Amino acid sequence: MAHAETHDPNTPLEYRSETGRLNILGFWIFLGAEIALFATLFATYMVLTHRIADGPALGALFEVKSLLIQTFLLLTSSFTCGLAIHEMRRHNVKGLMTWMIVTLGLGLGFLYFEIQEFLHFIHEGANIGTSAAWSGFFVLVGTHGAHVTFGIFWVIMILIQVARRGLTPATSAKVFISSLYWHFLDVVWIFIFTAVYLMGMVMQHG
Amino acid sequence: MANKSAATEHGGFPWKHLIGFVLSIVLTLFALWIALGTDLSVTWILIIIFGFAFLQAALQLLMFMHVTENSRKGGFSGRIQIGNVLFGAFVAIVIVIGSVWVMSAGHAKHDKHDAPKTENQDGSHESEEHGSH
């Protein structure tokens, strides 16, 4: 593996191969497209947010407690994912694995509370077909939740690969890319927190 | 700043991550308080909480995702990454604000076409509208 490596020994593993560097840059470009994807869903939601037909208003069903639990689970998972990359750059495979598994656990916790919340909304008479506003809500927040679900499976596969092959320029680039994806999901959540939940509750009370 | 190489951030305590995490928590709770715990007008609440959201997104990008980081010493991938994210943010803002504006600003005119009777009855209102054009 270390043959013909003329790099600075401090260069992180994920940046040592041309493929690794290009894949990481390519993933940043992909994230730009993801921003545009979520922007269309945010636009749809914000245009339709008052079109509640005969269903309940969005802000009337939002609960601060459930919102904060989800927000802190995802925010903390983004932090522990960052710690995992920090450990990876110290060539500490055990540290990387530990923090990534914590990250996955927090991600699963987030999904649990999100699904609980969706079930609660449906129980209160707001499902995806209730009104244009609730369609916009479930499609936007559901797309984010689907991304988190996909991310959990993806990271598990990459961790299996790291366990089998160890940290190489190839596997570390994959871990780094999946970490960018995971942080990005928290960035999207910040805007869901603000534009959907906080705005919904402000419009309801104010 | 953008030229900082990844190689300089090795080992040691992950201060950057910790600071990013603590600031994110503070911004989240502060936004919640502004939205639900104050008597500010809706406009000001929206300006402040969206300001906090963009600030927290920038924190994630800088502190957790190393967006400014170059993959090679003296390279420019950091600049491409920043340019790409900023362009993505621009596209997002245009799509969201543009859609909301088109869909709400247009309604005033459509409503008038839909209800010509009320417009005719309210003569003073009509002349006022025409005067402003």
Question: What report would you give on this structure?
Answer:
The complex is a heterodimer of chains A (206) and B (133). Chain A has 206 residues and is mostly helical. Chain A has one domain: Cytochrome c oxidase, subunit III, four-helix bundle (Four Helix Bundle (Hemerythrin (Met), subunit A), Up-down Bundle), CATH 1.20.120.80. Chain A has helices at 18-48, 58-61, 64-88, 93-123, 132-165, 169-205. Chain B has 133 residues and is mainly alpha-helical. Chain B has 2 domains: 1-75; 76-133. Chain B contains 5 helices and no strands. The model of chain B is unreliable at 1-5 and 115-133 (pLDDT under 50). The relative contact order of chain B is 0.09. The chains are: A mainly alpha (206), B mainly alpha (133). At the A-B interface, helix 1, helix 3 and helix 6 of A face helix 1, helix 2 and helix 3 of B.
Topology (elements, then pairings):
The complex is a heterodimer of chains A (206) and B (133).
Chain A: H1 18-48, H2 58-61, H3 64-88, H4 93-123, H5 132-165, H6 169-205
Helix pairs in contact in A: 1-5, 1-6, 3-4, 3-6, 4-5, 5-6
Chain B: H1 15-37, H2 42-64, H3 77-114, H4 116-121, H5 123-132
Helix pairs in contact in B: 1-2
